[in-house]
Input
Amino acid sequence: MTSGATPKPRTRIQARNSETILEAALEVFSTYGFRGATLDQIAEVAGLSKPNLLYYFPSKEAMHQALLTRLLSTWLDPLRDVKASGDPVTEILGYVRRKVELSRDYPRESRLFANEILQGAPRMREAIEGELKTLVDEKSALLQSWMDQGSIARMPPAHLIFSIWALTQHYADFDAQVRAMLGPDHDPFTEAGDYLDTLFRKLLAP
Output
């Protein structure tokens, strides 16, 4: 390809195969972690040959990185949506609700992210120390301003964000344990949303 040439767009079949591979990779990575996952496992779940996998993604690392890049954007959007112009308690409780919904709708992605962090974030360190830290610093400053105005109770703002992460993502990362404790007839996410709304509403009261 000559310098400056525009890459050919992927065909519909290529786009579909790429998505099939990433879906299979997500299933395998979220179950076995990055180290435990193999190309053979991903190929089997995808229903494609291993050489076909490597045609689209040159390595297991490339698949994992593609998933993490997509995941980070999904994970950060609810925090980005916390608006300075809104009512402080409403904005924070809305963020909690959206995080519960993410755990309900994207449990495998949550476990993928948790596995990466538990390994020391070798493939996400740049994003965590860059984009994520910048966003957390920005929202921590907003929380601090609401505390200074007396709109919400005083507490370390970054730790408030950490606690929201921990309490919401628990329902995805420990799904088997949660469901075993509650039994098959309970919807943990409806109960979790209501419980966390009450918990944080009391915590935030000035």
Remarks:
- The chain is about 75% helix and 0% strand.
